[in-house]
Amino acid sequence: MRILSVLFFTLFSVSAIAQIGAKAQPGKIQGVWQNDSFGYQMTLLLNADGTGEFDGDAIRYTAKDGKFVMTIVAEAQTTTYTYSLQANALTMSGGDLDAPVTFNRNGSGAEQSTATTNAQPATPNGGKELIGTWAGNGESIEFTTNGQCHYLGQTYPYQLSAGHVTLQTAQGNFMLAYSVKGNILSLTGNGQTVQYTKGNAVASQNNIQAQAGGRRVAQELVGKWCYVNVNSTYSGGSSTEQCITLNADGSYEYYGETSRSVNTNAYAGGTNSQSSDRGTWTYDGTRIYYTSSQGAGSGSYLLEKRNHPKNNDPMIVLDGTTYVTQYQKSPWR
């Protein structure tokens, strides 16, 4: 099964994040640090295991003897700074900085005592900035006030800690770093960051009746589904691939490619053809309906939900043609 890097659940491999050989030295440097002296807020998250996040980018770091070595994972870029730590102030200099920059520990204030600075920093705003429905990458994710995360037709309890959200799944707990800037949510894990935009457009689409007959945009169907058929013989072969991407905003995209080849003593050659389409879709629990199709106008397919007989991946069957998920999804129940 192919999994696109933009998919949310690629982040579920977060437990496999490689840790640096020498972990960060224990001390008060761990926590959430912020600086807004440049007219915008910079956030530096430092975990005790030498991992962290800087403005939405996953990092690895070491802090020892006044030297702070930070590697941005996605860019494999390492920079060495000089640092000093005083109570709730972390000052960085050198490296790519023109002048020293001081970060303040998140949640600290003038009234905060030395004893309380050793406590685990609280999640900014109590996590309220995370609540709501977020859309992007052809999908949506919702965090509710009662500790539930709704994603791709599944519900996962979640807990918040400093700059992190931990999802409770059947496979275990998975921690993701998160940051919210304006109406943009960034989720980071396994060295990758996925961004979503906050808005009620997707939620509203789900709650209304798109057309007569109770049709709706069904979140459990959102994702990319592909049919692949390959035949090969001694004299040639053929291959067909058809992929349908059902987006959370009610739009869809289709792409198909067919190729054939012949290789005999008398003749050798091949053909290749491609096709594409886009439009809108809804689902009534039995049939999936397409409208505004560039090539076919409108119509519908009988939709069945099945699980793959070998790996249990969920599939959709449209009028007898089987499409397997390209997203990491739980089996149909």
What is the compact description of this entry?
The chain is mainly beta. It contains one helix and 24 strands. Mean pLDDT is 74; it is low at 1-27, 107-123 and 200-213.
Low-confidence stretches: 1-27, 107-123, 200-213
Helical residues, percent: under 10%
Topology, number of strands: 24
Largest sheet: 8 strands, antiparallel, barrel
Count of domain modules? 2
Structural class: mainly beta
Q: How many helical stretches?
A: 1
**How much strand content do the residues show?**
over 45%
Which overall shape is indicated by the principal axes computed on the Cα atoms?
elongated
Backbone CA Rg: 25 Å
Going across the biggest sheet, name each strand in turn: 1-2-3-4-5-6-7-8
In whole angstroms, how far apart are the ends?
A: 20 Å
What topology emerges from the helices and strands here?
Layout (H helix, E strand, L loop, with lengths): L30 E5 L6 E5 L4 E4 L2 E8 L2 E6 L4 E10 L2 E5 L7 E5 L26 E5 L2 E5 L4 E4 L2 E8 L2 E6 L2 E10 L2 E6 L2 E7 L2 H7 L15 E11 L2 E11 L4 E13 L4 E16 L3 E7 L3 E11 L6 E5 L2 E5 L8
Antiparallel strand pairs: 1-2, 1-8, 2-3, 3-4, 4-5, 5-6, 6-7, 7-8, 9-10, 9-16, 10-11, 11-12, 12-13, 13-14, 14-15, 15-16, 17-18, 17-24, 18-19, 19-20, 20-21, 21-22, 22-23, 23-24
